Amino acid sequence: MDDIRETVQDASAPAVVGAGVRQDERLWAASAHAGALLLAFLTSWTAGIAGMLAGLIVYALKRGDSEFIAAHAREAFNFNLSLFLAVCALALAGLLLVGATVLTLGLGAVLTLPAGIVLAVLAAGLAVGWLVCGVVATVKALNGETWRYPFTLRVLR
Questions:
Q1: pTM
Q2: Whole-angstrom Cα distance, residue 135 to residue 6?
Q3: CB–CB of 51/41 below 8 Å?
Q4: Contact in structure between 116 and 97 (CB atoms under 8 Å)
């Protein structure tokens, strides 16, 4: 009977994740992601530059100490750079739409208004995706797991 209880307890126990990663490495890796979120909120959503800065600082300080920390810091930097470039592209498209509306003396609003709504929805989607991915990456780092952000340019390798 004791053997059955031990088997059931072992089967229900959570798997050990990141057993080879030290606690300080996990905290530093998580700080690259959480720092990007925190700096973006503190700087009124200049998310790209602030987020890149957080990842770059952690990478510069700890890249020689741990590959785990370096990998998470690179991911945080690359993801925030990618989002910054996407937001810049959306802003440029928005400026072009406003310019088209002004140049046509408002008559172009028939076309630019729906396009502007699409741009606003895309911007909101980017903001939500940035927040969700940042939180997921932070949790993964705290658990000692690796994480690769989706749709990210890998500039810093």
A1: 0.79
A2: 35
A3: no
A4: yes
Q: For 37-62, b where at least 16 C-beta lie within 10 A, e where not — what string?
A: bebbeeeeeebbebbbbbbbbbbeeb
Q: Are 149 and 134 in contact (CB under 8 A)?
A: no
Q: Give the CA dihedral 105, 107, 111, 117, nearest 10 degrees.
A: 70
- Residues 44-80 pLDDT 10s: 665 568 778 899 999 999 999 999 999 999 999 999 9
Residue with the bigger pLDDT between 48 and 1: it is 48
State the amino acid at position 107 in one-letter form: L
Amino acid letter at 91? A
Report CA torsion sign: 100, 105, 108, 110.
Answer: positive
Question: For residue 28, what are its two tokens?
Answer: 């530093």
**What is d(CA 93, CA 44) in angstroms, rounded to the nearest whole number?**
21
Q: Rounded distance, CA 84 to CA 127, Å?
A: 11
Q: Across the chain, where does the E strand assignment appear?
A: none
* 152 closest CA partner among 51, 76, 48, 72: 76
Give the burial class of 33: count Cβ atoms within 10 A of its Cβ; 0-12 exposed, 13-18 middle, 19 or more buried.
buried
> How many helical (H) and strand (E) elements, i.e. helices and strands, does the chain have?
5, 0
